[in-house]
Amino acid sequence: MADTIFALSSGRPPAAIAVVRVSGPQAGEAVRRLVGRVPEARRATLAVLREPATGEPIDQALVLWFPGPASETGDDTVEFQVHGGRAVIAAVLAALGRVPGCRPAEAGEFTRRAFDNGRLDLTRVEGLADLIGADTEAQRRQALAQLGGLLGDKAEAWRQRLIGAQALIEAGIDFSDEADVPGELVGPALAEAAALRAEIVAALADGRRGERLRDGLVVALAGPPNAGKSSLLNRMVRREAAIVSALPGTTRDAIEVHLDLGGQPVTLVDTAGLRETDDPVEREGVRRARDRAAAADLLLWLQDGAEPHGAVPPDGLAGRVWRVVTKADLLDEAARTRWAGAGTDTHLTSARTGEGIAALMEALERAAATLIGAGDPALVTRARHRAALEETVAALDRAAAGAGGPEEIVAEELRLAGRALGRLVGRVDVEDVLDVIFRDFCIGK
Ligand SMILES: Nc1nc2c(ncn2[C@@H]2O[C@H](COP(=O)(O)OP(=O)(O)OP(=O)(O)O)[C@@H](O)[C@H]2O)c(=O)[nH]1
Ligand SMILES: [Mg+2]
C-alpha cells in the first residue's frame, strides 16, 4: 500500500489561515482520528481537531474531504484549514505523523501523485509549477493555459494521429502477402505524417516567445567604462541597485533586476564596462559582460554623449542593439541636435535629470510585447517541449525520406516520432526528467 503523505500546503507561518493536506489510502483514517468522523464529501465542515491519544483539542478547523479518484491527486485527500500559528501547525503535523502509514510529503509529491494517477500530464505539471512561479500577468496567463492542457492536449492528439498512421502501415505489413496492399496504405500514412509535421513546425516557429515569457526578456546594458550604465539602471528601476562611481571599472559582477513592464517580465542586466585591463578581477567582469551582452534578447549600448565618436557595439548583434546616449544634461545644443538626428534606435537620456528615461521604458515595454507576443498563449514554453517536438519532426522527416523503401522502416520512424510526443506528455520513459521537474516544486504542492 502506498504511503499517505501530509504537508503544510499554504505559505510560511504565522498567517491567518494555514492549509494542511493529507493524501493517500490512510487519509480517511487520519480525518477519523483527528475529527472523530469522516465529514460529507466536498463540503466545508466546521470541526474541532483533537489530539487522537488524549482527546485534547488542537484547533477549530474547516475540514474538506475529497474521496479519490475525484480528488486533485486521484487518491483520498483531506484538507484541514486551521489557524495559521506555528504551534497549531506543528501540533496538527505531529498528530498526523502518528497516524499509521502517514509520513511528511516530499517537495512536489502531491503533484507527482496526480501525475502518476493520470490526473495531470507532464505539460500540465509544468504549467502548474509555472503558475506558482508566475510574477507577471502575461506569465500567469501562459501558465494557466498550459495547466489547462494547451500543449498537452495538442501533443496527445498529434500522438493519436501518429499511432493511427503507424497502424495503417503495420496493417499493410501484416497483410503483405495479399498483393500491393502496403503501397496503398503507406501513401495515406505518409500524407498524415506530412500534415502533422506541418502543424508541429508551425508551432515551433514562434520566435521562442513562450520560453521568453517564462524566463523573462533579458535586456543587457553594456558599453565602455563610465558610460553611465549603472546610473541608468538605477534610474530605470528607481532604486540604488548598482554601485555608481566616477572611477571607471566600478561594476564587476553582472547585476540583475527583474521588472514587470505592462505584464511582461523583463530582466535588466548591468555589466562591467568593456575595456582591456590588467586587473584579473575586472578582466573576469569584462568576460562576463561580453557573455551577457551576447546572450541578451536586447542590448542597450550606452555611450557618453560627450564622446564625439563613441565606442562601437560588439558585432553579431544585428537587430538587437539600441544605442543609448547618456549624460544628456552635460550636452550643448549642437551635440543634442546631432544625437537627436541619429535615428529611432538612438535614445538620448540623462540619469541625473531623468530626461528620456520614460520614453526608453515605454519603448522597452513595446519591444517586450512584440518579442514575447501579447497575443495568444504560445504552445511551447520550455526547452524540453522544443526538444521533443524537434525530435518528432526529425523522425517524421526520416519517415518521409524512407517512402518507397521497406515499410518497416517508415513504421519504425513513425513509432519514434510518436515516442518523442509520448515523452513530451510524460507517457513513456520519462523517469529521468521527472525528478528534474518535480524538484522545482515546494513541499505541500
Ligand atoms: N552629469 C551626469 N553624470 C552622470 C550621468 N550618469 C552617470 N554619470 C556619472 O558618470 C560616472 C560613471 O557612472 P556609472 O553609472 O558608475 O558608469 P558605469 O558605466 O556603470 O561605469 P563602470 O561600472 O565603471 O563601467 C559617475 O560619476 C556618475 O555620477 C548623467 O546622466 N549625468
Ligand atoms: Mg557600472
UniProtKB/TrEMBL annotation:
GO-annotated biological processes? tRNA methylation; tRNA wobble uridine modification
* Textual note on the cofactor: Binds 1 potassium ion per subunit.
EC main group:
hydrolase
Residues bound to (6S)-5-formyl-5,6,7,8-tetrahydrofolate are R21, E79, R119, K445
Protein residues bound to Mg(2+): S230, T251
What does the entry list as the binding residues for K(+)?
Answer: N226, S245, L247, T250
Is Nucleotide-binding one of the keywords UniProt gives this record? yes
- Start and end of every TrmE-type G domain? 216-369
Provide a GO CC annotation, any one: cytoplasm
* Record-linked NCBIfam families: PRK05291.1-3 (NF003661), small_GTP (TIGR00231)
Homology family: Belongs to the TRAFAC class TrmE-Era-EngA-EngB-Septin-like GTPase superfamily. TrmE GTPase family.
Q: What is this protein called?
A: tRNA modification GTPase MnmE
